[in-house]
Amino acid sequence: MKKILVVSTTGMGDSLWGTPALRALKKSFPEAEIHFLVNSHWKTLFVGNPNIDRVIDYSPKWFHQPSIGLKLLANRYDHVLIFHANKDITRLLPWLRCHSLLAHQTSAWIPEKNRVRIDTLVHGIQRRLTLISKIGVNSDGGQMEIFFNTTDLKDANQFLEQKSLSPQNYIYINIGASGAHRRWPEDRFFELAEKILAETNYKIILGGGPAEKQHIFEMREKLDPERCQDSIGVPLKPDSCIIRQARLLITCDTGPMHIGFALKVPTVALFGPYDPRGTGPFDLKNNHCFMLHPTVKGDFSPDTDFGGGDLKKIGVQRVWDKVQEALAHSPEGLSP
């Protein structure tokens, strides 16, 4: 085994789900070069991962793809493993020189002969582990990973120092999401932030993407400026390190939630339209994830019928109750 290409060109969470399988690949084939084709937006999350020998930037735009194709064409791969991709990847398939190509998705653009069928509902991490088992790789557990270098740590700590924050004395609230159907209303995030500031001694960092920038600025104007900051403009890797040092992460089912899971940050996670059995925590202790779903009032179980869920049906009081539960029962205790 000389070279393996892993393709994961969609969302942040989709890509982080691949890290347990990447670890298992490297453990099984330590001499093989592992190349990882990933969306350029998330590339920094995988730089420095000791299980990846080369990170290759991906862009779905057609005019960027010939240069990507040339990079791939320069290699001959024993296996190409498609962890997750959209149809735009098909423009690059003719550039691949490989002995075998395998994928677990059932999309029409994947030839039937290349599909590994998984007919039951399983977590995205397990789907990737099942895929690599077809080339003789055993699982090495399902814990996701992000690796930081000294610059990442320095940048994060510098941010905290400038904002008069210290590790474990703040709650990170991510108000963003990859789509409106995954986003809890901003006014409820604001009400929750007010309650946290009024009822606890914790400070708050508000996070989100470009689409949430204005909402975050408006929220900060109405909240205590001494106790509420934002991470707008902080690059993804240092921002992940800031999340890593939070006492608690509050987020919807979106990319930063998976960052929290990868770093074992106690997380209050709000799920809506997607079944948490497929997208939620995997191989995590209960005191690292505290889940909420519009249609599930009690504890989650493997037999829970989630159905579709509208995040607007989750009220502020339910989330606040879950925040208090998380602070009381997650590793660091109740007070800063």
Automatic annotation (TrEMBL):
Pfam family, one: Glyco_transf_9
Keywords in alphabetical order: Glycosyltransferase, Transferase
Gene3D superfamilies listed in its UniProt record: Glycogen Phosphorylase B
GO BP term, example: lipopolysaccharide core region biosynthetic process
Record's GO cellular component terms: cytosol
Listed InterPro entries: Glyco_trans_9, LPS_LOS_Heptosyltrfase
Molecular functions (GO terms): ADP-heptose-lipopolysaccharide heptosyltransferase activity
Entries under PANTHER family matching the protein: ADP-HEPTOSE--LPS HEPTOSYLTRANSFERASE 2, TETRAACYLDISACCHARIDE 4'-KINASE-RELATED
Name of the molecule in the record: ADP-heptose--lipooligosaccharide heptosyltransferase II
